[in-house]
């Protein structure tokens, strides 16, 4: 059991240890590059003790953003799931697997949940006066145009018919890689016929990681993007996996609201309006993703039109997104079912697995986003309960990748950056 101060010291040391000079590894070995949404959450942790370093995490991340000339020229603004600043042979699929060798900074060819505008807004709010505020405004002047390009990429390339609900073309884009919500749409994806060698099992026990049949399909989808020359129109029309992920949709919704705010702060009124127009469209369209059975939002397979009626924590980000139904009573119900906080898949769901990747374990950053969203919507007591669960888990088990919601065991990678950042930003500060 760690004290508050000890844990804050360990959290700062974890970020320093994973720092590779401008970008932070999620954890050494298992994830040896810069990950997209990890970078956003991790910047919050840096912000609690080194604002310059915090903003720099975004400069490094956006150095891998694709421009109008890159790889076929149709993905201006794309921001990848992984940016490979330096090579490493401890991870598959590494920089040589994606067909992106022509890029100056090599990346993967899929994206991840766009948390960044929200994280930057929170960083601005932590910089209320003086030099910290000057720094924030100076960095935002550079970063907001990149955020705008990125949000426009999501709306243009992943929702070309302007339905209000963006599509994703690879389970890894959701960041909730092995969620049981993806089991059904993955049945339409062929297994790859080519040989490849996984590296994750060198670091973590197979019982906590996805099976081979899943990886065979991940590789197929990775190769599909390359086979269509990264053409977003072809991906949208032909990819054998196309899903409206409620997690991405909720995170993009919140981020576009926050981006509109950041634009207003900088006096960019037309882009602010443009983002709010997108937000309004999604606000109406998301009603189609409501599950009466689970009393929350869920994802949808856009090829069959079927709801993926699986209760995952992604569908509880409704308050965070600002959707009309905030799901607070469903969150309260979930909290009575598992002793250590909100699992990634509801405990009563038949395919819940307490220790396997995204099929049950708790990820602390999701609980932070959910709790902050609930507090924003006036559910302060519920938000405090989520925070209290997280505090206990981190004080007992330290900073792991994820946690067993039934035993509280820390699982997956250790010395994990975004978990440490979650502590520094959300749990450690007094008076919240
Ligand atoms: C796993 C997670 C993903 C995360 C990455 C690095 O792939 O599923 O969400 O970004 O690890 O932490």
Topology:
Blueprint: H1 4-18, E1 34-35, H2 36-47, H3 51-62, E2 82-83, H4 116-125, H5 130-158, H6 183-186, H7 212-227, H8 232-238, E3 243-244, H9 246-265, H10 269-285, E4 290-291, E5 296-297, E6 299-301, E7 307-308, H11 318-321, H12 328-335, H13 364-376, H14 380-397, E8 402-403, E9 410-411, H15 417-427
Antiparallel strand pairs: 1-2, 3-6, 4-5, 6-7, 8-9
Helix pairs in contact: 1-15, 2-3, 2-4, 2-15, 3-5, 4-5, 4-9, 5-9, 9-10, 13-14
This protein binds alpha-D-glucopyranose.
Alpha-D-glucopyranose binds next to helix 2.
Characteristics:
single chain, about 425 residues, mainly alpha, Glycosyltransferase, 3-stranded antiparallel sheet, two-stranded antiparallel sheet, 15 helices, 9 strands, about 5% strand, globular, binds alpha-D-glucopyranose
Return Rg in Å: 20 Å
Q: What is the number of strand segments?
A: 9
Number of helix segments? Answer: 15
Low-confidence parts, pLDDT < 50 over ≥5 residues?
none
Describe, in plain words, how this protein is organized in 3D:
The chain has 432 residues and is mainly alpha-helical. The protein has a single domain, classed as Glycosyltransferase (Alpha/alpha barrel). The protein contains 15 helices and nine strands. The strands form four sheets. The chain has a three-stranded antiparallel β-sheet with strand order 3-6-7, covered by helices on one side. A hairpin with a 5-residue loop joins β6 and β7. The mean pLDDT is 97. Alpha-D-glucopyranose binds next to α2.
């Amino acid at each position: 059991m760690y004290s508050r101060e000890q844990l804050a010291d360990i959290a700062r040391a974890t970020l320093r240890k994973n720092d590779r000079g401008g970008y932070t590894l999620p954890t050494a070995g298992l994830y040896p590059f810069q990950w997209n949404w990890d970078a956003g959450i991790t910047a919050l942790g840096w912000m609690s003790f080194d604002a310059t370093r915090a903003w720099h995490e975004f400069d490094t991340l956006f150095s891998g953003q694709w421009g109008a000339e890159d790889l076929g020229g149709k993905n201006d603004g794309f921001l990848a799931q992984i940016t490979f600043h330096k090579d490493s042979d401890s991870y598959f699929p590494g920089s040589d697997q994606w067909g992106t060798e022509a890029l100056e900074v090599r990346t993967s060819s899929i994206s991840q949940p766009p948390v960044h505008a929200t994280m930057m807004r929170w960083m601005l709010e932590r910089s209320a006066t003086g030099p910290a505020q000057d720094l924030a405004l100076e960095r935002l002047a550079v970063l907001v145009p990149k955020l705008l390009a990125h949000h426009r990429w999501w709306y243009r390339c992943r929702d070309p018919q302007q339905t209000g609900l963006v599509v994703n073309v690879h389970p890894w884009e959701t960041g909730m890689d092995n969620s049981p919500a993806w089991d059904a749409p993955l049945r339409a994806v062929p297994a790859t016929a080519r040989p490849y060698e996984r590296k994750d099992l060198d670091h973590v026990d197979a019982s906590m990681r996805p099976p081979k049949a899943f990886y065979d399909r991940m590789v197929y989808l990775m190769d599909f993007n390359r086979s269509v020359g990264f053409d977003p129109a072809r991906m949208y029309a032909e990819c054998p996996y196309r899903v409206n992920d409620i997690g991405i949709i909720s995170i993009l919704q919140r981020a576009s609201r926050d981006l509109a705010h950041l634009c207003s702060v900088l006096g960019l009124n037309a882009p602010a309006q443009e983002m709010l127009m997108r937000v309004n469209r999604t606000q109406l369209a998301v009603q189609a993703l409501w599950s009466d059975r689970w009393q929350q939002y869920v994802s949808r397979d856009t090829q069959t039109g079927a709801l993926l009626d699986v209760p995952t924590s992604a569908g509880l980000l409704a308050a965070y997104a600002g959707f009309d139904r905030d799901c607070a009573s469903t969150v309260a119900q979930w909290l009575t079912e598992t002793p250590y906080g909100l699992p990634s898949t509801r405990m009563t769901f038949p395919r819940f697995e307490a220790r396997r990747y995204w099929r049950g374990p708790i990820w602390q950053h999701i609980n932070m986003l959910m709790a902050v969203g609930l507090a924003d919507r006036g559910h302060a007591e519920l938000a405090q309960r989520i925070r209290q669960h997280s505090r206990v888990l981190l004080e007992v088990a330290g900073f792991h990748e994820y946690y067993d919601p039934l035993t509280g065991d820390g699982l997956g990678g250790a010395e994990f950056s975004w978990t440490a950042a979650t502590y520094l930003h959300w749990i450690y500060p007094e008076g919240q």
